[in-house]
């Protein structure tokens, strides 16, 4: 049986499953990160699936461990800064996105900061205070009315929209358009973890497009796959393509068809075509920063 997601406290841990319809209010980024991590520990195949899990799930194989039926669904009222800090790196952001996609976490925007973080359910509630010099948080008080006090805020709060998709969505989008080999390469090239931010000159969008180019994909289909994956709009990838072409890393070639207009294939050239997948990001960064 998978472990129950629990917030680490000075006294041990605080089970999220022990609260009915749990609500977390105004967590600081470290607390929200701890929540995502405890869900990852409870359901790793859902939150942070590896390639074998992605293949099995997309292909429809039975994989009950990926979606534990007793995983508590948590509503989080947090500031945009808290969500953005936790989702700064691609891998951390994709874990959060996986929870949202599975309805295990509902991210809502908190309109005003609160005096302290609150964890509340239908019949119990407490304040969570960060502990200086000790790992975990302190549970303070037990107020069964806390959940009802925040109901008006929950009812009117807007959903915080994540800008990063889950690994499952990325894999599925590229597999549907191009097959398993391309999908696997995209996931592998997005592996670096928290250091891979949207501000990285060789960020997630560029990496995904580059994989398609290394496989000689049709440009239009590649841009649609990137859009299906939630990585950006087709116009975003028009700019990515132009940047790579201007850097001498990408060429296009016309592909005639028996019926209809010719298609355009994108092909990696030079330092983008030569290195192994494990080193292509470094080669790409070096070329783009010259």
Features:
290 residues; alpha+beta; Arc Repressor Mutant, subunit A; six-stranded mixed beta sheet; 13 helices; elongated
Please describe the topology of this protein.
Layout: E1 6-9, E2 12-15, E3 23-25, H1 29-42, H2 44-47, H3 51-58, E4 74-78, H4 80-86, H5 90-101, E5 105-109, E6 117-120, E7 125-130, E8 137-140, H6 146-149, H7 151-156, H8 167-178, H9 180-189, H10 204-214, H11 219-228, H12 234-246, E9 250-255, E10 263-268, H13 280-288
Parallel strand pairs: 3-4, 4-5
Antiparallel strand pairs: 1-2, 3-6, 6-7, 7-8, 9-10
Domain Transcriptional regulator TbsP N-terminal: 42-165
Domain Transcriptional regulator TbsP-like C-terminal: 167-270
InterPro entries: TbsP-like_N, TbsP_C
Note down, in words, how this protein is organized:
This protein folds into 2 domains: 6-155, no CATH class; 167-289, Arc Repressor Mutant, subunit A. It is 41% helix and 16% strand. It is built from 13 helices and 10 strands. It has helices at residues 29-42, 44-47, 51-58, 80-86, 90-101, 146-149, 151-156, 167-178, 180-189, 204-214, 219-228, 234-246, 280-288, and strands spanning 6-9, 12-15, 23-25, 74-78, 105-109, 117-120, 125-130, 137-140, 250-255, 263-268. The N and C termini lie far apart (53 Å). The mean pLDDT is 89. Residues 167-270 form the Transcriptional regulator TbsP-like C-terminal domain. Pfam families: HTH_TbsP_C, TbsP_N. Residues 42-165 form the Transcriptional regulator TbsP N-terminal domain.
């Amino acid at each position: 049986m998978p472990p129950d997601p629990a917030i680490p406290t000075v006294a041990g841990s605080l089970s999220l499953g022990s609260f009915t319809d749990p609500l977390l209010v105004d967590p600081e980024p470290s607390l929200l990160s701890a929540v995502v991590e405890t869900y990852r520990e409870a359901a790793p195949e859902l939150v942070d699936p590896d390639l074998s899990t992605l293949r099995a799930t997309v292909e429809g194989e039975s994989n009950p461990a990926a979606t534990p039926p007793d995983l508590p669904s948590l509503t989080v009222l947090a500031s945009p800064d808290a969500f953005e800090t936790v989702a700064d790196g691609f891998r951390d952001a994709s874990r959060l996105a996986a929870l949202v996609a599975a309805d295990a976490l509902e991210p809502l925007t908190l309109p005003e900061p609160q005096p302290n973080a609150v964890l509340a359910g239908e019949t119990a509630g407490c304040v969570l205070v960060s502990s200086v010099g000790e790992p975990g948080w302190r549970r303070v008080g037990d107020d069964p009315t806390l959940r009802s006090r925040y109901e008006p805020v929950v009812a009117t709060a807007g959903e915080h929209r994540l800008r990063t998709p889950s690994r499952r969505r990325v894999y599925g989008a590229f597999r549907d358009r191009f097959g398993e080999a391309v999908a696997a390469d995209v996931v592998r090239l997005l592996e670096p973890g928290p250091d891979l931010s949207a501000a990285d000159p060789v960020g997630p969008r560029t990496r995904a497009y580059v994989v398609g180019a290394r496989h000689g994909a049709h440009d239009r289909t590649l841009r649609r796959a990137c859009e299906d994956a939630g990585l950006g709009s087709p116009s975003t990838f028009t700019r990515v393509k132009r940047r790579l072409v201007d850097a001498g890393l990408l060429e296009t070639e016309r592909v005639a068809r028996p019926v209809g207009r010719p298609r355009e294939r994108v092909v990696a050239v030079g330092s983008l075509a030569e290195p192994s997948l494990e080193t292509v990001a470094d080669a790409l960064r070096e070329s783009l920063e010259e």
